[in-house]
Amino acid sequence: MQNEENLSSIDQAEAFASLFERGASRLKEHDQELTERYIRNMNMFSQIMPHIFESFQDYQPKKRHIYMEESGELNLYREDVGVPLFSKNPRAQSAERVNRAFIKPNKTVLNLERTANHPSRHVYYSNKILDQVEQQSAGLEPQSGWPEFVGSAILFGVEFGYQLEMILAEREIKHLYLYECDLDFFYYSLFAIEWQNILEICNRDGRTIHFFLGVSPEEFTEKYLRQLEENGFFMAPETFLYVGYGSPENDLAIEYFKKQYARQVMGWGFFDDALIGIAQGLKSLPKTKIAHFQGRDVLPKWVSNIPVFILGNGPSLDQGIELVKEVRDQVLLICCGSTINTLKKLGVTPDIHVDIERLKQTVDKFQFLDQDYLDKIWGLSVNVMHPGLFDCFKRSGMAMKPGEAITSLMLNQARSHGDSKEYVQLNYCNPVVANLALSYVHLFGFNNVYYLGVDNGFKDKGSHHSVHSGYYKDGKESGFQTFQEAKLVEREGNFGGTIYATGIMDTSRVQLESLTRQLNKRRNFASFNLSDGAKIEGVTPLRFEDVLIMDSKIDHTKVIDILENVFFTEPPESLVDQSANALISVDDFRKISRVLQQGWDESITTREQVCDLFWSHHRQIYFLKGSIHRHIYDLLIGSFTYSTFLIVQFLFKYQDEAETVARARHLFTPWCEFLEEMPSMLQQASEYVDQGNDHLITFYNG
């Protein structure tokens, strides 16, 4: 908390020197008291959080200008900004800042709306909950300020803990996340406040406190996401944010947190989707090969150094297609989704085609292409894909998609039959095909990657895909998809300017950035973004005229042969021709679904009680993750997260707690109805192969 009473003149600086001398003297006078507090805190951390004790046992702070104010509170002269951390009364100043935040808090937000004309039962029941939200909101006064109880809060900057003390003295917090990049500040907090009081508050049954100390802004968000998964993503869009003090590190942490927010609130999945994945994955297995990993050394190094172009269907593809044709013999082309129809029109045949969307519509676009064209391409996907895709390609392969029930079932079945192969789960492979393409690049170990047409947005709503794509006909939108009414966010362009992106486009960019951070740790890895779309952090912007590929021509068939032989194998015999019913634990699922319907009775009257109930339900599901019933976790967690979030959002939206909680029970009813229906759906899992519709065939100009 940078002191707002800044000292600006030389006279003031001299006055401060005198003040500091007196403050240092007071520090010596209270040395025994401060030392005893430090010992109490360290003893407590040694027992409860030994990793913190070990980090500060022999710690030597770099910031040495610590002193005591007349009030008896510690202060620190910050050489980086030339002023003290606090005013003359640190606790009084902290109280003022905290009270301002209570009146006008910052918090995360997510708005989910009704989805029309969607066949899934998940959407049907979500719409029922949203109908109840609308009905039950009538006459309620909106919440203003920070409620007495919140489910989740993040404190960016702990400083000496004074503000944290104030917050916890006035408010109840279920899950508290503390980020402090400056270890000196936390070290001095061991002398300034009684941490035992804070941990006693935060370690009560159902409460959690999480420390992120001395980590970079990027590392904070990554660790926070892992902890959020354990505590429940349903709290993510209802999290209160508090900034303890201004600093470049805190500013970066907040900026990165915002950039990565999509990873908290999108891609939860849902029950029907998981069933479709199970049915389609099992039917696809006999038609294709499955990815496995045998180590990096099995791939010839000359293969990993081949330049790879990831081709998307964005407007930038039109600008760079001549470059693609020019270097075609020297590079490997990976084509993403609907881009395959565009490339066919432009006279380009890719080496690899990737698709990830599990619906039959994904396969329908191949009807516009002749079989001779498809026979020259290696089709790659994941184990939730519609089985029709694998009928379209002469050779194909699939990897496992993490977080899917079919993946858990396949791995459990293979392991139970003594199969020890390292089957591949492609992290960061969603939400769209460009993400899958980069995941395969990661698997194959390629070192030189170029993005073209992977725009992750557009400059105007009328030019969202290549003009040669099926989205357009005779220069106008074909009727397949439009973005005229879409909700868009503004993002920085790859070559400057502003790009507009939908939520899923933005999430795709975030996922590309996350995997790119891993890839950039490879010594020889480099990636270049040729697209005039959204900037991808970690990927070098490069204009077409600056691309220089000096590699010799490659034997594309030989390269694909090597990749297939090294990274793909026949599917496990224990899985081929297995039915979903034989693999799914329907009785165990029914037991947990009944548990999740229980607990909300007349005794539930507060927000805290509802959050505790949902947290206990979440724990029931989460503990399945490490068991042989992992597939039940994968089946339930998505729809649970959506439904409970909608209820939690309603809880914190209105002022009258008792009335809001009473009305919120009406939102819980549709979720219970869905839970009651799920076991019967599960018994029909084999029938959940998507049947599709005629939308693409009718409107897509393929």
Protein architecture, described:
The strands form five sheets. The protein has a ten-stranded mixed sheet, with helices on both faces. A five-stranded mixed sheet has the order 4-8-5-6-7, with helices on both faces. 46% of the residues lie in helices and 13% in strands. With 702 residues, it is of the alpha/beta class. The chain has a domain at 271-569.
Which keywords apply here?
globular, 28 helices, 702 residues, single chain, alpha/beta, five-stranded mixed sheet, 13% strand
Task: Please give a quick description of this structure.
By secondary structure, the chain is an alpha/beta fold. The chain is built from 28 helices and 22 strands. It has a domain at 271-569.
In terms of structural class, how would the helical and strand content be classed?
alpha/beta
Gyration radius, rounded: 28 Å
Quote the average pLDDT.
93
Strand order of the largest sheet: 21-20-15-10-11-12-13-14-9-22
The quaternary organization reads as single chain
Strand content: 5-15%
Helix content: 40-55%
List the helices and strands and how they pair.
Blueprint: H1 10-29, H2 31-48, H3 50-56, E1 66-68, E2 74-78, E3 83-84, H4 90-103, E4 106-107, H5 121-136, E5 149-156, H6 162-170, E6 172-180, H7 183-192, H8 195-202, E7 208-213, H9 217-231, E8 239-243, H10 248-259, H11 262-265, H12 271-284, E9 289-291, H13 301-304, E10 307-311, H14 316-327, E11 332-336, H15 339-345, E12 352-354, H16 361-364, H17 371-375, E13 378-382, H18 388-392, E14 395-399, H19 405-416, H20 433-444, E15 448-452, E16 472-473, E17 476-477, E18 489-492, E19 498-501, H21 503-519, E20 526-529, E21 540-541, H22 556-567, E22 568-569, H23 580-583, H24 586-595, H25 607-622, H26 630-651, H27 657-683, H28 695-699
Parallel strand pairs: 5-6, 5-8, 6-7, 9-14, 10-11, 10-15, 11-12, 12-13, 13-14, 15-20, 20-21
Antiparallel strand pairs: 1-2, 2-3, 4-8, 9-22, 16-17, 18-19
Helix pairs in contact: 2-3, 4-6, 5-26, 5-27, 9-10, 12-19, 12-26, 19-26, 20-21, 24-27, 25-26, 26-27
